[in-house]
TrEMBL record:
It comes from the Bacteria. One of its GO terms (molecular function) is phosphotransferase activity, alcohol group as acceptor. Keywords: Kinase, Transferase. InterPro entries: Kinase-like_dom_sf (IPR011009), NH2Glyco/OHUrea_AB-resist_kin (IPR006748). The keyword Metal-binding does not apply. Coiled coil: none annotated. This is Kinase. It comes from Metallococcus carri. One of its GO terms (biological process) is secondary metabolic process.
Length: 315
């Protein structure tokens, strides 16, 4: 995308802020979800950075500007305090991040220092952005994730989407199915979700539904802290799945895929005190859903990966 500037340089900002061209590539072309397209948001990003720095009284600090799939993270100082300014492309999954972080209040998660929900701007404590749980042996990393599950466990807050409601949409998607995904898998996922959501506690907890190895950063005050929450009113058994499908290259090299993936799941469940059968069922369902969404994108390689992992969760 042509930002009207040299690659990686944001125009119109009073201080030097450099972003990776890879971030622009990730956001450019995205349709509104629901309010503003990726292209329109990128066009306004220089002014948004400047307004956010002024509003929160921040000074850009030394260090790399990092990014995820939909957010840029700028190192800043708030007075004498090192922090980061996180600006997310406005989309539904990021809309309630600030509420989850306020609820956790730094216990098991990055601490929220200030927020402007209307512009998806957050000021967060600065963690070690160069060290996440991908730097740790896989089985130890699974244990650390299980510990974070227990640190983050809180009653659900009323503003969140409920897992039971989301599952109703997913059940309909499974019934619709896809020629690219075996019908026996989609039928099984629909049946299992229908049963899982009858549990009276299925919506009882504030959970981070995307807590995996790259979303846990090293810190001084705790060994690891969760970042980038995708909050949901649900159960933590639902949250195990991302640790199963991330670090996929290690799964591919395993002698027995089923044993490898189930070992990950088992370690997290044992550490966090979760019912392994519910985590197994939810993980299977989420993998089938990923296969269906990849089928919508006509991504054959991803479909193959999701189906292989889903089959490893059965039998």
């Amino acid at each position: 995308m042509d930002c009207g500037c040299r690659p990686g340089r944001l125009p119109g900002v009073a201080v030097s802020v450099t972003i990776p061209a890879s971030f622009v590539d990730l956001v450019a072309g995205r349709p509104p979800e629901p309010a503003i397209s990726g292209d329109d948001w990128l066009a306004g990003l220089p002014a948004l950075i400047e307004r956010s720095l002024d509003r929160f009284e921040l000074a850009v600090d030394e260090g790399p500007v990092r990014h995820g799939v939909a957010a840029i993270v700028v190192p800043v100082r708030r007075g004498d305090t090192p922090a980061v300014l996180k600006l997310s492309w406005p989309h539904t999954e990021a809309s309630l991040e600030h509420l989850a972080l306020r609820t956790w209040d730094g216990r098991g998660a990055v601490r929220l220092l200030a927020a402007d929900p209307a512009t998806y701007a957050l000021v967060l404590e600065r963690l070690d952005g160069a060290r996440d749980l991908t730097s740790v042996d896989l089985l130890e990393a699974c244990e650390q994730l299980g510990r974070l599950f227990t640190r983050l466990d809180r009653p659900a807050i009323p503003q969140l989407q409920r897992l039971s409601s989301e599952a109703q949409r997913w059940i309909a998607l499974c019934h619709k199915g896809s020629d690219a995904v075996p019908r026996r898998l989609t039928d099984q996922a629909a049946v299992q979700m229908t049963e899982l959501i009858t549990d009276p506690d299925v919506d009882a907890h504030l959970i981070h539904q995307d807590l995996h190895y790259e979303n846990a950063l090293a810190a001084d005050r705790e060994p690891w802290l969760a970042i980038d929450p995708k909050p949901l009113a649900g159960e933590w058994a639902f949250g195990v799945a991302p640790a199963v499908w991330n670090r996929w290259e290690e799964a591919q090299s395993a002698y027995n895929l089923r044993a490898h993936l189930r070992l990950r799941l088992g370690i997290i469940c044992e550490t966090a005190g979760l019912a392994e059968e519910r985590a197994l069922a939810w993980t299977f369902c989420r993998l089938v859903l990923n296969a269906l969404w990849s089928a919508e994108d006509d991504d054959a390689a991803a479909i193959t990966q999701w189906i292989a992992a889903a089959k490893a969760m059965t039998g």
